[in-house]
Amino acid sequence: MSETLSVPAMKTKRRRKMSATARQQRLAAFLFLAPACIMVAIYVIWPIVSSLRLSFYNWDGMTEKTFAGFDNYIELFHAPTFYTALKNNVLWLVLFLLAPPMGLAVALYLNQAVRGIRMVKSLFFAPFVLSGVVVGLMFSWFYDPTFGLLKLILGHGVPVLGDARYVTFGIIFAALWPQTAYCMILYLTGLTSLNSEQIEAARMEGAKGWTMLWHVVLPQLRPTTFMAIVVTIIGALRSFDLIAVMSGGGPFESSTVLAYYMYDQAIKYYRIGYSAAIAVVLFAIMMVYIVYHLRRMLRTEQ
Length: 302
What we know:
Layout: H1 2-54, E1 57-58, E2 66-67, H2 71-77, H3 80-96, H4 99-110, H5 117-129, H6 132-143, H7 149-154, H8 167-191, H9 196-204, H10 209-220, H11 222-237, H12 241-246, H13 258-268, H14 272-301
Antiparallel strand pairs: 1-2
Helix pairs in contact: 1-14, 3-8, 3-11, 4-8, 5-8, 6-8, 8-11, 11-14, 13-14
Subcellular location: Cell membrane
Domain ABC transmembrane type-1: 85-293
Keywords: Cell membrane, Membrane, Transmembrane, Transmembrane helix, Transport
């Protein structure tokens, strides 16, 4: 009978041992994740919460804060410049989404084993490693109506950066150059992980060209496409450096966007609370787009 009773005892002892091992594994996982979680909390979560709190105050950065409630948001939604900046952000978003398909086209062209292709890849990737200030200065000289390359091409000067009708399109065109290079790198990385067996089977079935791309290659590139779209959307919504270098938000605030409008109010006019309200609205817009695309991707995978 003692032998019969020892079997449950052994099972209980084994469970305790397994539970102790599981606790140790969870503790080890927590210790490994703790530094990253602390960094995210300090440099991401806390600034977001601080900006949200600050948006309900009037503050010039030096004197005491005064509670303003929703006054900053009410003023923001009644400011004509806000709607100009929002319209320009939408324009940036629509035209900037040309970067992923252009990056894919360049990646498909460069994804071949021919002599000298590495040099060509480095030339296509070069715009991405350039500073935004450098890109802005290069295109400012390109658009210059007195000596720019655009004048030599067209035969006459066009004040792209001085005309409210063209300035936003000119800056977006300049920003597409490095963004396309970044999407190209993402797709080149994705093309190296394609399932060769599926591609070979599709070729044996007679698939080629557009059929191969649409039904075999692109479905395997969905995670890469998702990353390219998310990064491009974030880049479009936080566009700042090229606007600061090329137009300064002008002429007459016609090329300003939410990120530059936020900077303008905080740095030039010392309206920190109002600037924080702009930052909160911009963050909310980003989250809407990112959550939408994330849910769409997860639904497609399921």
